[in-house]
Amino acid sequence: MGLRNDDERAGRRAGTASAPAPAAVGTEGHTRAAIVQLLLEDGPITATAIGTRLGLTPAGVRRHLDALIDSGQARASRSAPWQQKGRGRPAKQYQLTAAGRGRLGHAYDDLAGAAIRQLGEIGGEQAITEFARKRARTIVAGIDAVQDNGVGGPTAEHTEAKAEEIAEAFTDAGFAASTRKVGSGVQICQHHCPVAHVAEEFPQLCEAELEAFRDLLGTHVQRLATIANGDCACTTHVPLLPITKKSAPQTAAQPATVRTNDSGRSAE
């Protein structure tokens, strides 16, 4: 569980800031797959951004997005006010639905679920918890905990950099993770979960990940959404301002997702 997937690793977030992907996504099937990969790793994302990244015409992008929406694999929503750049009507953003992610495959779900159930019968709930913790530690192995600067905890820069390290480790494990600055914090977003179906039955897997985040970041973190609960991504908020008993962060975390309109078409 959580093993690296070669296809996902090939599309790692490390390349998302680089030049547009070559238009070698020539055939219809390859183009559709490339768009699905962007929706998975960078969604919610606009049609304009997809076209720029893949070197496709607006009409071509809309045609593929409409097909994905009609088949229930993707959905459209308007950008939230805090996401909007400039004036005018907010652009539509697109992301995969649970059905769309499900088509990517969840290898060994049945076997993994049976194995954990057997572990619980033999060792009880504590055995499952320990297994989940060991799995989470394995994913982040090699990452050192953020260092306290001795004056109120780690700096915001160090915390944000550590969150990026964690996201990269989870991407290597098949979670298509990324980070984004939101308000007075940073969010770790896992756009895919290779064990989502198993985590629905065993929430200890999600709880152990959150525990690993706290240990490495040295601060309270809050899970805002999980794929196992039907959300579009597993989103964890990490405050960048020190939290004390006398004061709380000045800006609350923004919503992890925007209001959706599943019936939306792709015309912007």
Automatic annotation (TrEMBL):
Positions of region (Disordered): 1-27, 72-91, 246-268
Chain intervals with Basic and acidic residues compositional bias: 1-11
Pfam families: HTH_20
Biased composition (Polar residues): 247-268
InterPro entries assigned to the protein according to its UniProt record, in alphabetical order: ArsR-like_HTH (IPR011991), Carb_Metab_HTH_regulators (IPR050313), WH-like_DNA-bd_sf (IPR036388), WH_DNA-bd_sf (IPR036390)
Biased composition (Low complexity): 13-27
CDD domains in alphabetical order: HTH_ARSR
Stated name of the protein: ArsR family transcriptional regulator
Organism placement in taxonomy: Bacteria, Bacillati, Actinomycetota, Actinomycetes, Mycobacteriales
